[in-house]
Design brief:
The chain has helices spanning 4-30, 44-49, 51-74, 113-140, 175-184, 200-215, 223-231, 236-251, 262-279, 287-307, 317-328, 343-359, and strands at residues 83-87, 98-103, 169-171, 365-367. The protein is mainly alpha-helical and 368 residues long. A two-stranded antiparallel ribbon has the order 1-2. The protein has a two-stranded antiparallel ribbon with strand order 3-4.
């Protein structure tokens, strides 16, 4: 079915991604880097330890993609093997999680609502099950509280206070991560969200939930878009557009504010409205409608900033919103016929919506 060259290419990409995520794990979890100073340089011991992050994380991504892959094969839809994208940025001194994710490309034409639904939903649900298992293990096997002192020995000093002006990083909670911690973790060992990244199984599981939520956004041809198309085929266009407007609208809250200097507003308002206009490039809307939406979103954000001073969205979503609207598109491929899904598939679709709600973090990565 696949040539030796294809197996070799995909295998090399997977191995490269495993190495990159392990290097990233050493940096994020243990503070060890190939570029570090003597006391924080990466050794083989910490490389092997960092597999506790990279193996479960990549394992969840692999199961996610294999869910798509085997379902596509079941429906006789030609597709590629999973492409893993290595993404270690430590060689330029930037933090990273080691990968930009994984994808499968459909080679065959899919002209069935049921096939789109099955292939779309199989990945996130399969990965979600494994992610929950990893998190249950991580929460139920937390080390002693002084474990964090092996990574941050300065915390052991009762007089320690963070340097003034130092950047603080923490993960943004979501309903499922919080709930599993409440049920399975020893409260005395449960780390704050600012330290979760130093617990490899918890960090891997959190990232898996993050990617699951991204894929289940009910927009365009994302997995969540396929689910919505399966459940509400005649209304996918409207649901996708409204979801995207809410997503990009939340992301950009606070960029323009009536309390900013007028000279800043004169620069940023036209630039930001232009950015919003570009974000709707692949929406299927007319130029006039795109202009109206861009101006309308900016106006609502401006009014909210005036009414609620200091209101902020999560501007980290803007890049993803740009990729969705400018590159991937908000529309779904048409199919012939709108035969209703059976009851089991409808229940799975509702389950996927619940999974999205449980996994979504409005602010997944917080820098203060």
């Amino acid at each position: 079915m696949y040539s030796t060259k294809e197996y070799l290419r995909h295998g090399i990409l997977f191995l490269a991604t495993l190495i990159c995520t392990t290097l990233a794990g050493a940096e994020l979890v243990y503070g060890k880097s190939v570029l570090g100073v003597a006391e924080s340089v990466l050794t083989w011991e910490y490389f092997w330890k960092s597999l506790a992050y990279s193996v479960p994380f990549l394992g969840i991504l692999l199961v996610h993609e294999l869910g798509h892959f085997f379902t596509a094969i079941y429906h006789k839809v030609k597709c590629t093997l999973p492409f893993f994208i290595p993404g270690w940025l430590g060689f330029i001194g930037m933090p990273s999680i080691g990968t930009f994710g994984a994808v499968i490309q459909m080679k065959g034409f899919v002209n069935s609502r049921k096939k789109f639904f099955d292939i779309g939903i199989a990945g996130p649900l399969a990965g979600f099950v494994l992610a929950v298992g990893v998190l249950v293990y991580g929460f139920s096997s937390l080390p002693e509280l002084d474990y964090i002192h092996t990574i941050h020995p300065e915390y052991a000093d009762p007089d320690y206070t963070p340097e003034e002006g130092a950047l603080g990083f923490e993960l943004g909670n979501n309903l499922l991560f919080w709930g599993l911690g409440e049920v399975f973790a020893d409260p005395e060992r449960l780390p704050p969200m600012s330290e979760v990244m130093h617990y490899p199984y918890l960090f891997a599981g959190f990232l898996a939930l993050f990617f699951t939520a991204l894929n289940l956004l009910p927009i365009g041809q994302l997995d969540g878009g396929h689910v919505i198309f399966g459940l509400f085929p005649r209304h996918h266009k409207e649901v996708s557009l409204v979801a995207y407007i809410l997503f990009i609208g939340y992301a950009g809250l606070g960029i323009i504010s009536p309390y900013a200097p007028i000279e800043d507003l004169m620069l940023w308002i036209p630039l930001y409205v232009g950015f919003l206009f570009i974000c709707f490039t692949k929406s299927g809307l007319s130029v006039q409608t795109r202009i109206t939406l861009a101006l309308g979103i900016a106006a609502v954000q401006y009014v909210l900033a005036y009414t609620i001073p200091g209101i902020q969205g999560y501007q980290g979503w803007l890049l993803y919103g740009f990729l969705l609207g400018r590159i991937m598109g908000l529309r779904h491929p048409e199919v012939s016929g709108y035969k209703e899904l059976d009851g089991k598939r409808k229940l799975l679709g509702l389950l996927a919506i619940v999974v999205f709600i449980l996994c979504f973090s409005p602010e997944p990565f917080i820098i203060r």
